[in-house]
Structure formats: C-alpha cells, structure tokens
Amino acid sequence: MTEKSAIIIGAGVAGLSTGIYAQMNGYKTQIFEMGIKPGGLCTTWERKGYYIDGCLHWLVGSSPKSSYYHMWQEVGALKDKNVIDMECFNRYETADGKSVTIYSDIDRLAAHFKEIAPEDSAFIDEFSAAVRFFSELDLPADKAPELYSPLDGLKMMTRMAPYMREFKKWGKLSIKEFAGRFQNPLLRESWLLFWPPEFSSVFILMTLGWLHTKNAGYVIGGSLELALNMEKRYCELGGKVNYKSGVEKILVENGRAVGIKLTNGSEYKADYIISAADGHATIWEMLEGKFMDQTVEKYYEMPLFKPLVFIGLGVKRTFTDLPQMVSGLIIPLEKAITIDNKEHKHLNVRIYNFDPSFAPEGKTTLEVMFESDFAYWQELSQDTARYKAEKERIAAAVVSALNKRFPGFSKQLEMWDVATPVTFYRYTGNWQGSCEGFLMTPDNMMLQMKKTLPGLDNFYMAGQWVMPGGGLPSGLISGNHVVQVLCKRDKRKFKVTTA
Fold first, then answer.
1. Closest to 16 in 3D by CA, of 82, 74, 79, 80
2. pLDDT reading at 1 higher than 70
3. Strand pairing partners for 50?
4. Cα dihedral 40, 43, 15, 204 sign
C-alpha cells in the first residue's frame, strides 16, 4: 500500500480525532497547532491552585450502551477516567424563595413540575413521553453520510422512521415557543432561562433523554485531561503535533491543496490538507475566499452560539449542601449587571462540588458565564486599561451578587479570572469568539453540511463548523468521517482499534 500523508490544522478534539483515525488507517500525519497545548476550545487553565474549565459540561456518549462511547474509547479520551452522572441539570431560584429544578431522572422531573404546576400536567406528560422516547435513540455515527449507498439510505430511513414524527413535531418548536406552552408563569420563566430561546426543542428533549439514561456524564478532571488523553493516543499511533505553529495560508496548485504556510514563513507539503481549525478563518483567510459558493456563504449567515464573558472564581469553602448540577444554579440579581448596554438580571453559576481535582481540599472552583458581543470586546481590548477595568468591574459585580446568595463569599474569595470573547478568539481563532459554532435551530437541525469546498481537491474540513450544534461529539464524529472518506477515495478498508 502506497503511504499517503495528511496535514491537519488544529489540535482540538476534531483535529486529534482526525489524526487518530488517519494514523489507524495507515496515513502519515502531523498536526499544526497555533497554541501550546492540545484541546483548542476543549481546555482547562490554572489560577492560584484552582482550575477553570472552558468547555466540558457533559459528554454525550458516556454510557457503554452508546455508539458514541465506543468512538470515545477508540480515540482514548476516556482511558483511566472516572465518569459521574449528576442528580440535576440545573436549578432556578426566585427572589421569593421558590425554585425549579431540572432533574436528570425524567420521572422525578415530571413529578416536580406537576407539583409546581398541576395545571400543566397534560403538557408535562406530553414532553416527558418525548424525552423517554428519545432516550432510546442511539444516533447513527458509524458511517460517513457521504458514503451512504441507496441501501444504506433505506436502512437509515427504516431505523429512523419511528422517530421522524417526534423529530418533526419538536424540531420545529423553538425554546421560546416551547416555554409558551406552559400555563404556569414560573415554569415559563425558568424554561427560558435554562436554554437559548432560538434553540430547537428537540435538542433539549434529546439532552434530557441522555441525562435520563446516564449517557451524558461528566469526566472527572475536565476538558484538558480528555484532550491530553487524545493527544497521547495520537502520538502512540505515530502522529506528531507541532505546537506554536499557526497556519497563515493553505497552499493550492492547479485546484489542489498541496500544503500549508506557517506564520513564520515555513512551508510543509502533504497529499491531503484537513482543516480542523476555525471555519471562517480557513475559508476567508487561509484560502483567501477563493473556494466558495452561495451555499458556503449561507452557512456563515446562520446564527452562532453567542460569545461568552467567562468568570472563574476560587473560594475557601465547600458547597456540600447543594446537589451536583451539570449546568449550574440560576439566581436573580437585586441589581442587574450591565455588559455592553445589555442588562443581565440573572446569574448562572456552575459550582464544582462534583470535581475534587479542580481545587485544593476544602475549597471550590465556581464559574459564571454571560453572553456578550464580540465587537464590543474587540474594540475595548484596544485600550488595555479600559479592558482590564471592565473585567474587574464585572468580576466585582459577580462576587457581590454571590455574596448575597452565599453570605461570607467575598471574604472567602482567593482567586478570580475573567476571559472575554477576545480571549477565546486570541487562543483559538474562533470566529466572533463563538465557543460552539452554529446554533442548532429549527431551520438547520437536519442540515448536512459538506466537508469539502467547491473547486478545491485534496482538501477537507472537520469540527464544529461542519456540524450545527457544536459540542465535543461534532469534533469526534467529523474527524472519523473525514478519514472514512479518505479511505474510500484511496481504496482502503477503514479500520479502527481501541485504546
């Protein structure tokens, strides 16, 4: 078999997945990464002995019954890792002492909702039945859609047929519309705080189904540990990661991608070029906008996950009185926190009382996130003093709010750190600082995006910019699928091994 080579741009989950599967199938690969460590957006950083996680909340495919689980095993992500399943997704507390909790167990969730709103019992039963229904669905990921034969398509239609009615019913319903189905104002208000209003409701029902079946657990150690496991797997298979190696340009000759040029001017050649980097930067900067059509342009008109202001906090106290929550605790603010002229009237705080590795004994890491605007922070960052002052102002407002919910919090504070959309852009190059790419909406939830560009041969893309909805599974699956396409092209039998 003739050895073929591939250059992969980006050492995030998508780039590592691509590299791992390519190495398994006899390709000689190397990854070029602009940063100094693996993971890309899937990362963790340390401040004063506390660890802050910029990505992992739950991992779809944490159950051995899931097809995704076997893929995570193939890339080595879960090797020697403990996975825990939490009691709750999140909880909303009101100023007058009421609360709404999204329990992981759907029966408990339904009972809790009915206790709050017996008038909504019929709708609660309706969506709870949908959650149970979707909990039995194992989304197909074993074969790249590009390789489906007519028979494969028929098999897929047969497999998915029982679910299509529910997909259509809930897929067209946004979170805002879903919330409007509740008669009870507390359930209506809380539902809109739990999820982005533009989201397709089917994604949320599937997430609740995964939580119910313990297929959306948390990996102890967080994002970077998962990424380091994948890097180790890749290197053991013979791959090489080049850090501090930002790619400036993808080299093209006669309509074929033939190599890359780094920001330091050095050039590297390979049979295939695969970008697992930011999609917008790849198409408009590395390829200078020369390989696109109306379809590609429309992709980048889709709504994005909003950029985030990300506050990490370290306190000398524990929170054993609170349940372990996947997403966090939402509390009302006596005084709204204003960021770029937008008032935030609630605080969503994630409390790491479930991961002892994130803080010294007797202490806890917390994280707070606000949606924000990239352009605002980009402009502000041009003035270092103003940029720093704004971060300090926001951190102080968050600490003050948490001090009201947790008396003594401000005196127990030992660490704070603020990352902005500009921070995420600086470290990953992600367009508009968006952490998860294209938002999954009723309009794009079934969209199959191409992993190639018009007029460019020997080039492929992987990652969250070719799969709406973002998240870690998009990186894992798209990397696997790209290599399947390569193997088909080179008449190789696609094969996998387990770490």
1. 74
2. no
3. 47
4. negative
Report domain extents, the chain.
5-43+58-80+221-302+437-489, 104-213, 308-428
Backbone angle region of 294, left / alpha / beta, with phi > 0 → left and psi within -120 to 50 → alpha: alpha
- Report CA-CA distances (Å) from 268 to 7, 203, 406, 458, 498: 8, 41, 55, 15, 30
- Is residue 223 within 8 Å of residue 352, measured between CB atoms? no
Mean pLDDT of 351-377: 96
- 284-332 confidence digits (pLDDT tens): 999 999 999 999 999 999 988 899 999 999 999 999 999 999 999 999 9
Instruction: Indicate if the pLDDT at residue 167 is higher than 70.
Output: yes
Q: What DSSP string runs through 189-215?
A: HHHHHHS-TTSBHHHHHHHHHHHHTT-
Contacts made by residues 483-490, CB under 8 angstroms, sequence distance 24+: 483/18, 483/21, 483/22, 483/24, 483/25, 483/27, 484/21, 484/143, 484/144, 484/147, 485/144, 485/146, 485/147, 485/451, 485/460, 486/6, 486/22, 486/25, 486/27, 486/272, 486/460, 487/25, 488/147, 490/4
pLDDT at 419 over 90: yes
State the DSSP string of 391-423: HHHHHHHHHHHHHHHSTTHHHHEEEEEEE-HHH
- pTM here is 0.95
pLDDT of residue 264: 97
The whole-angstrom separation of Cα 103 and Cα 45 is 29
CB under 8 Å to 128, separation ≥6 — which residues? 106, 107, 109, 110
Q: Which CATH superfamily is domain 5-43+58-80+221-302+437-489 in?
A: FAD/NAD(P)-binding domain (3.50.50.60)
What dihedral do alpha carbons 66, 71, 74, 78 form, nearest 10°? -60
φ/ψ of 304, rounded to 5, equals: -105, 160
Q: Which tokens sit at 3?
A: 């050895």
Task: Please name which of 468, 436, 435 lies closest in space to residue 449, comparing C-alpha atoms.
Answer: 468
